Amino acid sequence: MRNTRFLCRRISIWIILVLQIVLITSYFLLQNESGHNLKSNITFNTSLGEVAIRNKLTYHTFGNRITLASIESSRLYVDLNTSLCYKHGSDLEVMGRSKNVVWKCKCLSGWHGNDCSQPEVIWRALLAHRKSVQLKGPRKYLRRIIYLLEVDEFAETSTEIRVNDLNSTVDLFVLYENQRSNYFARKISKFLKEFHSKILYLRLTNVKDVWKIVKSSLTNLQDDDIILVSGPSDYPNGAALQYIKLYDKWPQPFRFRLRWSVYGFFWQHPSKTALKGGACTISYLYETLQENVTLLYNKTADGMILGDLNHFGGWFCEYCYDSLQIIKFLNANPSLSMISFNSANLKKIDNEYVEDLIENGIYLDGKTELLRTRRYRESYFAPIFVTNSSWKYDWLLINLYSKMDYY
């Protein structure tokens, strides 16, 4: 009897165990079948996905329609009695403290004109121009500036500086990259993101097509808007650009005489300046240049030159990279160098050699001595944004390769 009960218990346990196995197996089979059916019912619309990604872009690109803002020039002026004074060029503090009625604008040092809107570089350019210039203005609405910048891996820092430095002056930054390069394509989504509303990024098979694409993207382009071009190492003077937005009847095109810095703003080439870049109105681009923006680089064209040997229309910072990037740049762009490589022993241009050149202020030809600049004594030492961000761009302001800090 006892054996019979024991046997029944064993049989019951086995039955329960088998039932549990069956239930567990059935559960997993049903789950797999349900997941398979769910997966088979899900499809992805690739085109809609692409549209969604496109809609998430915060910068402008191919196919976008861009409307340039119309800004009244009055916001840049203050009306004092019968005088209209340019805010950035007028000594408003002194004028406000005056006990007498102020009838004229009092200009800050480096500013000229009845309304104090002419920065030193513009004032001197007008004096030096061979013909009398009768400017008209200020305009009711500011002209818009469209700045074309060709970018690649060597232009990352210069692009960052220019966009920050000229953001309040330039209305649209066009960053265009050769199709063979994808350096900016990989980082543009996070690069200068706070300025994306004013950035049009293009990858082009032929960079000569850039203006055709830009023109088709703008909904309200006007004949008196300004097209600006410059090299990847050029930094136009923002104060000068702001002035031409305010006034009419200036000679076209105008070009920039830039302070020629080498390795950083702490060294200056003995030639002191370089004539670079250019700008003109859209009407001049159509009627005289036949929409060929490359003609703005023509150094022999008539027009007005902004800058002289002591008051610069901007900065040209040549080879302003670290030593390893300089070598990489030379290998990638041998034809763009401004030195005669026939007179230099290229075999000795390595990292140690370049560091020695930077430290001692010798040009890449190995013989031209550069001029030392003085950061705290010169008003045109570097772009304002760079000097105000010295914590980030110290390597452009201080010769870090020097064994002694002269600055």
Quick tags:
407 residues; alpha/beta; Laminin; Spore Coat Polysaccharide Biosynthesis Protein SpsA, Chain A; 3 domains; 10-stranded mixed sheet; two-stranded antiparallel sheet; 14 strands; 33% helix
Spans of 5+ residues with little confidence (pLDDT < 50)? 34-52
The CATH topology assignment of the largest domain is Spore Coat Polysaccharide Biosynthesis Protein SpsA, Chain A
Portion of residues in beta strands equals: 15-25%
**Residue share in helices?**
25-40%
What number is the mean pLDDT?
Answer: 86
Tally the structural domains.
3
Characterize the largest beta sheet: strand count, sense, and whether it forms a barrel.
10 strands, mixed
Distance between the termini: 107 Å
Provide the CATH superfamily of the largest domain.
Answer: Spore Coat Polysaccharide Biosynthesis Protein SpsA, Chain A
Can you count the beta strands? 14
Described by the principal axes of the CA atoms, the overall outline is globular
Radius of gyration: 32 Å
Query: Could you name the CATH class of the largest domain?
Result: Alpha Beta
* Oligomeric state of the chains in view: single chain
Based on secondary structure, the structural category is alpha/beta
Keywords: Membrane, Transmembrane, Transmembrane helix
GO molecular function: beta-1,4-mannosylglycoprotein 4-beta-N-acetylglucosaminyltransferase activity
Transmembrane segments: 12-30
Protein name: Beta-1,4-mannosyl-glycoprotein 4-beta-N-acetylglucosaminyltransferase
Helix/strand layout:
Blueprint: H1 2-41, H2 46-56, E1 77-80, E2 83-86, H3 92-97, E3 111-112, E4 118-119, H4 120-128, E5 145-150, H5 156-166, E6 172-178, H6 183-187, E7 199-204, H7 210-217, E8 226-229, E9 234-236, H8 238-246, E10 254-262, E11 264-281, H9 282-287, E12 304-306, E13 314-318, H10 323-332, H11 351-360, E14 371-372, H12 384-388, H13 394-397
Parallel strand pairs: 5-6, 5-8, 6-7, 10-12, 10-13
Antiparallel strand pairs: 1-2, 3-4, 8-11, 9-13, 10-11, 11-14
